[in-house]
Amino acid sequence: MLTSLLLLLFFILIIDLYGYYGLRKLTGTGAFRPYRRGVIKGYWMINILFVVFSVIWALAIRNSDWELHVQYRNYLYISGAFMLIFLPKLVFLVFVVLNDLKNIVAWIVKLFMPSRRGRGRKLAAFRRSLLLPAFGALFSVIMFIWVAHGIFYQRFNFQVERVEVFFDDLPQGFDGYRLVHFSDTHLGSFARTRPVARGLEKISGLQPNLVIFSGDMVNNEAAEILPFISYFRDIQAEDGKFTVLGNHDMGDYRRWHTIEEKDINQRQLEEYKDQMGFSLLRNEHVFISNGQDSIMLVGVDNWGLPPFAQYGDLQQAMGQNADFPFKILISHDPTHWRAEVLPYTNIRLMLAGHTHAMQMGIRTRWFSWSPSSWMYPEWNGKYRQDQQVLYVNRGFGFLGFPGRLGMPPEITLITLRRSPQPES
Q: Per-residue DSSP letters for 337-375?
């Protein structure tokens, strides 16, 4: 742990020094020169203030009598401030590095190519150009605004994604059936109840037949749920509200004094979910009926590829009804789809979360990308293989970083459609 911390501090120091070098170069000539002293002082002052704030705030947290989940939430102020400072700095450094590479190329050209009239002056002007660092400064300001927007606004900007999913074997009675899927509330990360209440009000406003929550209601402890129980209870759905346990719900990321203490936390979590009006499916299934038709709703405990635990048991969850024709699976981790669902079952629709879309990325009408795609082949949205569909919700809450950059919190309204042909 100490070695990792020292390496991180060394990495940050290198970035700070290189950023200082880039600012000195940018403000050394031209229109920026009159502001050089103020810019350099401001640069180091921001760094010093961040370090002082982080140390004082961390000590205040450690010496407080706050509950552990409240302490964790308050550490988010440090991570938020770090991202607000670090990401713009990183953007600036990219352009400073490109500028240095440009100068190295110019030096190599001058060294190996015969000199001609005018070429020396052009190369010198090319090397003196500070266009790249100037662009870096501009884009770093844009990044600062983007991060601030993600922290103060976007993390509470709950978006409703409306999705239609077509199956040629969907029971006729479920054609047009509306289910709301949301995931990863991480309630311990919210300092106020109002943003959560506002997001949950949107769910009831969609008038769903069924509500599904695919895990990670808390960061670590059941106590995180207490201020929010009434808001979850107010969600209305005619065929009920169902949930499963995600990796954070299992209580594996907190140090418990005894196994019994962890078990008590688990039982409290289940009790609070019941008070919310949510039916918890732990490796089991239920049937949802509409007239003469039924679908099977299967729920499993968290199942993920290492390092994530595999508590889920899909075969146990389906039991003797594994051959039931139309099944919907709630499983927190989307990697479960390729690992067990596609190879071994005919489950038509799986609903997952877990990835948060890394709380960072780019979303347009034509293109979506997130660093999460480096870790998860299916990280947000709808995926189809033949007659089997996976939908990955990018999450309702936040974890680690108190913000969302380009990947706002999601509530998904899924409408089931019966179609003679699968979607293209």
A: IIIIIHHH----EEEE---GGGGB-EE-SS-EE-GGGGT
pTM here?
0.92
Give the Cα separation of 36 and 13 in Å (integer). Answer: 21
What whole-number distance in Å separates Cα of residue 308 and Cα of residue 317?
Answer: 19
Strands 178-182 and 159-167: unpaired
Alpha helices in 113-193 (DSSP H): 119-128, 131-152
* Alpha helix segments (H runs only) across 183-322: 194-205, 229-233, 259-275, 314-318
Residue 30 has pLDDT above 60, yes or no: yes
CA atoms in the 13 A half-sphere facing the CB of 157: 14
CA-wise closest residue to 392 among 303, 345, 314, 330: 330
**71 phi-psi bin (left φ>0, alpha ψ -120 to 50, beta other):** alpha
SS3 289: strand
Torsion sign across C-alpha atoms 265, 271, 276, 277: positive
The three-class DSSP label of residue 279 is strand
Distance between CA atoms of 217 and 220, rounded to whole angstroms?
Answer: 9
Predicted confidence at residue 419, as pLDDT, reads 87
Q: What are the Cα distances from residue 195, in Å, to 157, 278, 409? A: 9, 20, 11
Would you give the DSSP letter of residue 310?
B
Cβ(180)–Cβ(209) under 8 Å?
no
CA-to-CA distance for 410 and 181, rounded, in angstroms? Answer: 9
Under 8 Å between Cβ of 340 and 314:
yes
CA dihedral sign, ordered 129, 134, 136, 139: negative
Tokens of 365: 């009408």
Residue 14 reports pLDDT greater than 50: yes
Dist CA 418 CA 177 (whole Å): 10
What number is the average pLDDT over the span 198-209? 96
Query: Do residues 247 and 217 make contact, with C-beta atoms less than 8 angstroms apart?
Result: no
Q: Is the dihedral of CA 129, 133, 136, 140 positive or negative?
A: negative
